[in-house]
Amino acid sequence: MNKETQTKLETFWKIFRELPNSERKVALDGLFSLCSWPQLPYSFSLLTPLLRVDFLTTLPGDISWKILSYLDAKSLCQASQVCKRWKEIAEDENIWKRMCDTHTGQKCGGCGWGLPRLNDSCPNSTNPAKRLKRTNKDIFAERLIVARNWKVKIF
User: Fold this and answer.
1) Which CATH number among 1.10.8.60, 3.40.190.10, 1.20.1280.50, 2.40.10.270 corresponds to the domain 55-91?
2) How far, in Å, CA of 140 to CA of 148, rounded?
3) 131 or 20, which is more confident
4) DSSP class per residue in 34-96
5) Are 105 and 98 in contact (CB under 8 A)?
6) What percentage of the chain's residues is helix, strand, coil (to nearest 5)?
7) What does the alpha-carbon distance between residue 86 and residue 65 come to, in Å, rounded to a whole number?
């Protein structure tokens, strides 16, 4: 790009930056109407990533937590695979504690199934100091396996 073209572009960008939002829309309408057909898909490829907004990242943490707390266990595990931020929220101990509380020893009103009550600490150790502290997600997974095993007919 030559110096004259660079100067024109910088002037164009400066003028565009100084326009109010309503006039920027008019300028964009005019700019896109001047584009040739091959330039429009190129423009679209530039705009697409800018338009993707991760709603959980833009919301306050407590609201993001509240949204994910309504998911079932399978959906919550899938949500944790979306990105690092979703994983951080989806693996929150409080969400899994709520999941355990909703399903343990009773039938959940939402899904209609429940999990058996089990010991929350490591069953291999009789010494309380040596028992492993497990996460609520691990406890939920263990109880889910037990519940599924009881539902399988052996005969």
Assistant:
1) 1.20.1280.50
2) 12
3) 20
4) HS-TTHHHHHHHHHHHHH---HHHHS-HHHHHHHHTTS-HHHHHHHTTT-HHHHHHHT-HHHH
5) no
6) 60, 5, 35
7) 9
Stated length of the chain? 155
pLDDT tens-digit readout, 71-93: 888 888 898 898 888 898 888 88
Q: 120 and 134 in contact (C-beta within 8 Å)?
A: yes
| 104-118 residue pLDDT tens | 666 655 555 555 555
Question: Rounded CA gap, 121 and 127, in Å?
Answer: 11
19 token code pair: 């326009």
Query: Does residue 118 contact residue 139 with C-beta atoms inside 8 Å?
Result: yes
Q: Are 75 and 99 in contact (CB under 8 A)?
A: no
